[in-house]
Design goal:
The chain is an alpha+beta fold. The chain has a single domain, classed as Roll (Thiol Ester Dehydrase, Chain A). The two termini are 17 Å apart.
């Protein structure tokens, strides 16, 4: 996935704080949803990966809030891969409302076994990424 994948989410009332803004913790759920959908576009369902014993766990997460997102806003989450190795994936995210940058985030996902131990990414996942040529690939 060399270009950003876009995923839209409409903010629900239940996701907001008393001021009517998207609660800060919900941003992380939006990142997960967008990242999962980006994976699906590449031909993978995360649940199938887990069933085969491959898990991607969040090892690092950062988020910078620029402007608040409000109830009923449509948020476009742009997800791109910054770095991809046989054991980790670094994603970058931009959250936009009507083209305006609201937040930026980044995650590092580690590839682990069912027991939580680091493992080498299976070839069928690695080969999809190699075909799409991200900005930075480390072997």
């Amino acid at each position: 996935m060399s270009e950003a994948h876009e995923h839209e989410i409409r903010v629900r009332y239940v996701e907001c704080d008393p001021m009517g803004y998207l609660h800060h913790a919900k941003y992380f759920e939006y990142l997960e949803e967008a990242r999962t959908e980006a994976l699906r576009v590449q031909g993978f369902r995360y649940r199938d990966l887990e069933a085969s014993g491959v898990f991607f766990v969040v090892a690092k997460l950062s988020c910078r809030y620029h402007k608040p997102i409000s109830y009923d806003d449509v948020v476009t989450v742009e997800t791109s891969i910054d770095r991809f190795t046989r054991t980790r994936i670094d994603h970058e995210y931009r959250l936009l409302c009507e083209g305006q940058l609201m937040s930026e985030a980044a995650t590092t996902l580690a590839c682990v076994s069912r027991e939580g131990r680091p493992i080498v990414m299976p070839d069928h996942i690695w080969s999809i990424q190699q075909a799409s040529k991200p900005r930075r690939v480390d072997h």
